[in-house]
UniProtKB/TrEMBL annotation, chains A, B, C, D, E, F, G:
The keyword NAD does not apply. Gene3D superfamilies: Glutamine Phosphoribosylpyrophosphate, subunit 1, domain 1. This is Proteasome subunit alpha. It comes from Candidatus Nitrosocosmicus franklandianus. GO terms for molecular function: endopeptidase activity.
Length: 228, 228, 228, 228, 228, 228, 228
């Protein structure tokens, strides 16, 4: 959110607002509602994005559900060449996914060409940022977007403040600090897809302390597809 | 609501908001108004959904009313191929039922074909989610939707946060923790309709500690009908 | 209001909202403003509805007024085939009565046929429910509607939360717990109109501990009329 | 306001709202803002309405003003056949008088006939009631309306909650409890106009403990006129 | 404001609103914001209006300003036949003066005749009253209007509640209680203009305990003019 | 602001609003938000306006800035014949300057003649006054306007309440009490421009206790120009 | 923000608002929400602007990111001849950058010429100022704008209050007090571009106590370009 703090895994100190400051800001100029939204994100499924020049992988922990309940879909097709995943409140995630799907479709209709990945990330950023300005509820979801466009394979993360980041590896959700450390240690641009998937699973396992069930999607030059 | 918490039967800890956090969020990023709505849902009629490949059953406890008062209808026809039930404040349930009936009709008018069940669930999800963003009252009702479409028999649950779940068995309302355990133990894909109805009644009986009066509906490939 | 509580005569426990919960909901997910509205209803005139297959009677206690003041009309003609009465703040009752009269007229204009009784009850329900969602004042009135349509004689009760109930006997207003017990004991489907009127008066007398003055209306297959 | 309380002269107990209840309602479901408005009405000029089959008299105490200040007009012509008076904040009274004058004119323009007295009372009722639903200030004025129409001489009182009453005798404003008792004791349908005027003056004198200066208006079959 | 209190010079007792009553009303149904506005008026320049059948005089104390600052204009031409003055916040006074000037012009344009004085007073009354109903700031200014029309010379006072008074003598602003007493003692209908001006100055001098500098305006059958 | 207080350099006593009074007004009917705005003005640059029949000078202290930062422009051209300066929050000053520049341009377009100085002052007054009525932030800037029109050289001051003053000498901003005293002592209508500039500098020096850097502008019959 | 305080690096004393003052203003007329926004800016990346007659350099510290995360772009192309950088919340910075890019494009479309640098700074000022007037969140970002137009090379800083400054050297963000001191000591108009870049890096190093990674952009008579 703040520049000095471009990991979303920061501690949310006191976040305290005992009448001393007016509504939107807390101590030290912190955005108190956004901090609350991030607390919810940090309780979400551990979710990973890994990118090499050849592909981008998005993998999300599927938390155990009640025996007769299907887990929620966590890997979403946005457009042929773009996929996304997220951590936070499910209904907030779904709304954001719908928003960027719509944006991708609008672009195709207006320009008869696929939207570039950065435009999707920026659009989501603006959409989320708007909720931080008025007396409404900032959305409690961080989103990882993976896509392929003329500039190659792309990986973005967008958080509730509207901040977006580009990179080769992201982790959001529960214990994402732990997850990202695992990925940092073993990441290399030469990872094969199988290596990357193993790495993502390992990172989630370390975070949750248990054999994870995961859902994954991959984007290559050929486009995005979910893994079964 | 949150991913780590995709049962609606969670404990609602303190839900405390003693001036420390601004309006929409409570401690740990919880949605305080939605948690209140869920408390009301948890005081509602114990209500069950069970699905096999052949049929889906929805059954709701009919609480004893005053001698001369008819119990409220709890099983609702949404469209020929879809039925629904719910737990929570009756007037909130009714409003949601009207909303999805209207949506099913609109779809028929626009596309001259029946709406698929997931679209109904997603529409309700979006409708409920909207109430969590602005300074209005989130609706205090969870809804179970049963339907049949080209992808087969479907069972969904949608809660006040806008989260929707798909599965073979759901329980909402009073002591739904107990009810769902009963169903989990005895559920099998080979259940006959009679088995399923027995199971639903047993689950409700365990929850309320009393012989239940219930209302039920069934959806098969032939469509939805209420049981008399 | 809640399903477990489909009598409006429940105790309004603490209803307490000492800053712990945000605006619309109180402890246990109660609707605090609606509970306040119901407290006002419970201070209103004891009001009775009794239905048999042949007729429906609505009777309301006419509280003693100052010597030179006419008592307020409590039995209202809604349409030829429908009458209504209510308990709560008079101006709130009047507004609701106007609303459903208008709705009955609109139906006649649009469809050239009388509106069915359930549609009136549902319309009033939706109208009242709307006041519970936004930062306005929920109306403090419960309404009993008696009517005759193609499905026969009908009796409904609608309360400030928007909940509507159908039945053979209702009591709202002051000491309605007592009133409804009297009716439950002596009700039978074979009651003549004279029996029913006696019963209603007896129930009100028990509630208020005094010989009541009442106003009544009756609906039969021939339509609604006020009694003089 | 409430049915059990159709005199506006009730005690306003505690009216207390120490953070326990949200905005519109106080203890026991009382309308706290309306109660405040009524407190202001009870500090207004003692004002009387008396009706017989032959005439209706409205009389309002004209409080002593500073020597060089004309007293405010308290008896208002609404239409040829209708007059009105009020107690409460003068500017609130004036606004309400303008509102019903306008309504009477609109009726003449639309229907080319004089408006009936009850329609004026109901219109004012709806107008006042609206101020009790939203976050605005309920008007602090009670109005007495006297008129003549096809149903004969009519006398109405409307208070800040929007409640309207019909009768033969009303008193509003300062010590109206005392005033109405005087009228009740001596009222008869055979009162001549002179008797009635004497009675009204006597009632006001008892209330204020002093020889009153009054302003009066009379409506007969021939219409309304102010007395000089 | 209230009828029993048609001098604006009343004591503003406690005006207390310690959380007990909601927003608009204070103890005893007082309009707390209007009372605050009146407190500001009572700190304004002592300002006088005197009327005889032949003329009306308006005179306002011009408080000593810093040596190089021109005093604010306090006597305003509204139309050829109407002048006005005021006490309270200068910017509030100016806005109200603009409002009635505009109203006078509109009348000339619509009816090709000068507006009567009472219509100006009523228009200002309605304009001010509106500020007392919604969550805005009631204007902190009382205005004295002097004019001549077909009914003769007229003198009105309008205060922040929207109350308007007609009379032969008014005093508003600082120590207006004292000022009005002086005028009452010596007022006669036969006052010449010179007498009246002397009287106004004397009243202001008594109020402020010092030789006053004043600004004055006079309206006669020939119209309004400021005195130099 | 208030008439008795037409210097803006008044003490802001307690300005206290501990829940006793509603929002806009504080103790004694003070405008609490405007008082806060004036506190900010009183921390701004000491700023002077001096007028003789031949010219008007506006001079503002230019506070020392960081070595590499240009001081903000403090003397603004409004139109050929009008200049202005201000004290308070820079961004508030700039907005007000833009507003009156626009107003001057509109006048030229509509009437093909230069706007008179008083119209500019009144327009600014109305603009600022509007911010004191609604739940927005009153602007924290006082403006001095110097201009020449058919009535000669003009000097005005407008403050956050919307009050405007006309005169020969004004001081606003830090220690303006001290500054205005210096000017009062030495002001004469016969001041040459050089005298006036010396006087303004001297007044600012006394206020800030240091050799001031200033920016100045002058308006004569030939129009407005900034001094280099 | 205030004139006496035209460095943004001031101490934010208590900023305390314990119920004593209404919403927008704190003690001493401080803008409490803007002060909070500035606190966030002061936690942002140390960011420098240096201007000579030949060029302007903008340089921002790129804080170390997680190993696999690309740092956010901090140097932005606004138009061919203008670049910008900022400190504060990234999403707020991005929104402001988009706003001025759009403004530059609109100018090209309307006037077929490049916008001048001051117009961009003023537009951003007005845009930010607007957020300080209403009950929304003032943006937490300060922006440095460098450009070239007919008046030569230009350097501006705009802060959350809407204040804009022009100069030869600016520092915003973390420990900007330290950074600006370094630049003040060594700045000269004869700096070569290499000198300036060294100086900017040195200033940032002093502020953060570490070898900085930076991103830079330069504007010369030929236009703006980012440095690789």
């Amino acid at each position: 959110m703040t520049e000095e703090n471009n990991s979303t895994n920061s501690q949310y100190g006191t976040g305290y607002n005992s009448g001393r400051y007016p509504y939107y800001y807390g101590q030290g100029g912190r955005l108190v509602l956004v901090d609350s939204a991030l607390e919810a994100v940090n309780r979400g499924s551990t979710t990973i994005g890994i990118k090499t020049p050849e592909f981008a992988l998005i993998t999300s922990h599927i938390k155990p559900t009640l025996p007769l309940v299907d887990p929620n879909e966590k890997i979403f097709l946005i457009d042929k060449h773009i996929g996304a995943t997220g951590a936070g409140y499910i209904a907030d995630i779904e709304q954001l996914i719908e928003e960027i799907r719509l944006q991708a479709q609008k672009h195709r209709l207006s320009y008869e060409s696929p939207i570039d990945v950065k435009s999707i990330a920026k659009h989501l950023s603006t959409y989320l940022h708007n909720y931080t300005i008025y007396a409404v509820r900032p959305q409690a979801a961080s989103i990882i977007i993976a896509g392929n466009d003329e500039t190659g394979i792309q990986l973005y993360q967008v958080d509730p403040s509207g901040t977006y980041l580009k990179g080769n590896g992201f982790a959001i959700g529960y214990a994402s600090d732990t997850a990202i450390e695992v990925i940092q240690k073993e990441y290399s641009k030469d990872l094969t897809f199988d290596n990357a998937l193993e790495l993502a699973k390992k990172a989630i396992e370390k975070s949750i302390g248990d054999k994870p069930r995961v859902e994954s999607g991959i984007v290559t030059k050929k486009g995005f597809s979910k893994l079964s």
